[in-house]
Every structure is written in structure tokens, then in C-alpha cells.
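Kindly inspect this one:
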Amino acid sequence: MLPDCAQSNPGSPIQTVSLSLFRFPTLASQLWVLGQMGAARLSFMRMPDVGFYKLCGSGTGQGFTPRPNRQVWAILATWPDPETARRNLTTAPVYRRWQHKSSENWTILLTPTSSRGQWSGQNPFTPSAALPGPIVALTRATMRLSTFARFWARVPDISAVIGQDPNVIFKIGIGEVPLLHQVTFSIWPDATSMANFARGNGPHGRAIQSVRAENWFAEELYARFSILEDWGTWGGKRPLAGTLNA
């Protein structure tokens, strides 16, 4: 067992993780969501069912750049089970407000299958058995001030490679604080295609070697998930169309 890897108890409820993406195309809606960075936190603090949660912005392009994309925002949250997640995601006022203000939104429900490391001083994910189907990979890192310039210098090459990879089903980069925090979220058809990208001899593999050799990150977390379901659209379509039995 890897250190810091959370484990589930047999027969325990299946922890559910939601990632909801929202698009705010107008200046008025972008100013509104900026104000929500404080207001939405208060809503989540009063929400008894939610566990760990983060409100995130995104980068330009495919999200893997240090320049913020003021149109795209995300909410990641953990829930004790799928039923609780669905109920809150469809009825909680904070989610209803964001859905109403956005021009489109997409939500994916996941169950963790492995998790190693920490995010804001904790490992928020409780793994359970993997389900058939595509694999979701999430990485989250806090850059050291002394190394973030080197990190972001590598990102354009990594972004170009993942954008050209025919196997990646979906990818986006988000984060809590520009430049210092980065969350990468990607969906792959299987473990082999994901591993070939992550550990090969390309820009991503070389960046991983530098991370280890030069101690780039003050905090890091690596997690994998199975997909439970999704709803909504992104870029005018369902990102998982044809990949799930639903």
C-alpha cells in the first residue's frame, strides 16, 4: 500500500466525487461568479452533506496555462454516496444559482479507486473497487515559489501533447490560486493509454522526472476514479457520449 493512500471499509457507502464545470461567457456573468468565490463558500459551509470541496478557476486554451480563463469555473466536492450527491447537485441553491447563470454546464460523478498524497493538508478521497469503463486521472500540486517558473515553462509542451493524444477522451486544467495551484483532470479509455502518456519519454514524462529530482512541489496528490454518470453538456456536446452504458 502506498503511503497516504486512503482505504475504504468493506460494506461502507461508496464515496462520490463530483466535478461540475460552468461556462460564463458575458462580462456580467463573469463578475457575478467572481463574487461567488466568497458567497458560495458560505453556502458550502452551511451544507451538511458535503465533505471536501473546492471552487476553482481555469486556464486559457485547454486549461493548462497560467493565464486565467474568466469564462470557465469549476466546483469539486465529495459526498457520502451517489444519492446524496445527486440530490445536492440538482437541488442545493448554490448549484442551482451557478447553473442558472451559466450558458452551459456539465457534471460528472466519480468514485475514487486510488489516492496518494495530500490536498490542503488532507487526502480527501476514500477509494473503493474500480468499475468497468474509462479511467479518470486527477493530479493536484502546489508549486514552490522557487520552482513555479520552471513548472510553467514545461506546461505548453505538455498541453500540446495531451491535446494531440487520440486516446484522451476529455481534459481540463483548473486550480484554486493562479500560478501556484494546478489541478489536471483527464479521462482515458484504459490504464495503458493513460500510463503511456504519463510515463513515456515525452514532455510529461520528462517533467515528472524533474519534479522528483528537483522537488518542485510543496504538496501533491494523485488520484484515479471510475465514472458513475454524467449530465449536461460541454462545448455543446456530452463529453462521454458513446463511452458509457447509459
Observations:
- The first strand starts at residue 16 and ends at 23.
